[in-house]
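Budget justification note: compute hours in this period were largely spent on complex prediction jobs such as the one shown. Inputs:
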Amino acid sequence: MAQIELRGVSARYPSGGQVLDGVSLVVDKGEVVSIIGPSGSGKSTLLRVLVGLLPPSAGEVWLDGSRLDYADRKALTAARARLAIVFQQFNLFQNMTALDNVTVTPVKIRREPKASARARGEALLRRVGLGDKLGAYPDELSGGQQQRVALARALALGPEILLLDEVTSALDPEMVNEVLDAIRDLANEGITMLIVSHEMAFVREVSDRVVMMADGAVVETGPPGQIFDAPRTERCREFVSKILRH
Amino acid sequence: MPEGLLGQLEVFFTWQNALLWLRATGTTVAMAVVGCGVGFVLANLLVLVRTWPSRWLLPLRVLIVLYVEVFRRIPFLVLIFLVLFTTRALGLHMPLFAVACVTVTVTATAFIAEIVRAGYESVHRNQWESAAVMNFGRLRTVALVVLPQAWTVIVPPAFSYFVMFIKETSLASQVGVYELMQAGKYFNNVGVSPFLAFGTCLAIYFALSYPLTRVGWRIERRLAHRFRRTSPAEPLAAPPVVGP
Amino acid sequence: MDYTFQWGVALRYLPDLLQGAWVTFHLTFIGFWTGLVVAVFLAVGQLYGSVRLRRAISAYVVFFTNTPSLVTAFFIFYGLPEIGILWSPYVCVLVNLVLNAGAFLTDVIRGGVASVRVAEMEAAETLGFSMLQKIRYVIVPHVAKVLYAPISNLYIVFILGSALAAIFGVEELTGTAFNIASETFRTIEIYSLAAAIYVVMTVVASVVLALVGRLAFRVRARVL
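Corresponding output:
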């Protein structure tokens, strides 16, 4: 059943300029959906709309069959409790250690017992290969390490849906694989994921479905085989051939 | 009082007078500490309300902006008289010391609010966003994420203002608070040479202000570049230029 | 509350207060900009002068920036007659203002000049600039840009600080308010009116300074 459903969602930034123009999209439970497209096509904006950082100017967002009202703080809070997002720029809290970044929300916001949250946080950081960096501050970590902390922080929320916003594009090439490996593990666990990425090989491998966006709208949707090998639209063919040529 | 500076020295430097000076110094410092301390708390409240994203608070926000702009533009001397006469008119017969403290608080709140706001602005927007999507409320975002990062930008100029107010409160002598300046005037009135009376005054002010200013520099150097900022060399909205 | 407001009485004295504001204006205008000239010389002396000159200037700056201008004013007002110098209150206050502004501005200017990056100077060096050219084309434009905002702010601070002249009987804005308030007992109204005039004066000063900065130095200052 549809876990996330966007019906004709449009959005614009306060500074002006339409960035999403009537996007409709359905993501089923446990599905891994990747969004590709040229920069400026609205991929990241779509994720920002979902988490309520940018309320849609038109259209509807449905979560598990109920419409999300972004003006209703309670509803938004409830929705956010089920979502987690990893940002392109990591956005770790600069004043907290890796472990505190991971445990702050469970402990301070969700009022979980400190000891269990801590144990879970440590386990998550070990899982992403940072068991020896628990006490490190973000500025003491490399980009790849920070991104993995951000991933652990998102997972500590126990999200039903994980949104990943170009999580590898700010990384040095040698860091990319360590982050992708961690995500691959998650995909196999059956968590619903919406991935914005430029790593085409990765997208192809991990996704159940790929969405191609351009100019704030969905151009084509289909399984990776279709999008990458036999795109049906001219726009998508053009984009994929440009990307895959090198 | 005997004539001649040398003769005066003997009469002037007594334990009794030393105690008078000490008390006056205490009052001077206390006015700045109380005023800036309370001002700091109030300034934080003002900025919290001013940056609260709610349409209903708009009138309050306008009032706060006006408050901050207006009270940074009224001389301390005029303000202390206003506070004095207004509280008297309201039937509050506060001690003069309290009148001075209120006056410092009113101005310090306005000055420090600008600093706190600049501190908020120095924290990268993505920190606010991260907190928002993880369901931190506004208060928790400020307490757990923003202030712990902003304080390195807030403390140095706030400390400069504190030192400034130590000097500024010399004007409280005009309503009769017995602080350092008033002590100087007292001794001058009872016949001590103005060089000696006001010289002592100057020396004590200097002994307070100079070491504190140095402490301020040290704090500033210590705290510089602690966290990644909005941009590397973001200038403060309110540059910590502090007057005499 | 047994105080009844009589704004009409206060407003009748508005022309007197404006007269006082005019005195405040020329007092601070003359004092501050004279202080700036003094400060430019002192800053140059501090940067390029002999060790003794530098120490003397530092001592002056440190002394005046760490003592209340009210106390130095008392020192001048009551001290100078003791050694036979009799100046009018206006002159005493003006001299005090110049001395204080000079000290604060020296500090500000020195910081600004020190912020000219070594790289810029080296670039000027490789272009074969003479000392004068370096000052003209590298230091002055940079320093003007960096210093404009803090100097403008200080000007506002000194307008407010000039209220202490009232204590020595100068009939500037605050002094005039003193006199009227003690004649009429309309204290709250008179002081509120004086405060409002200070707010208007400093806002006008801020706006004018911001416009001048934008035109002359391309400084994009916040007006308020």
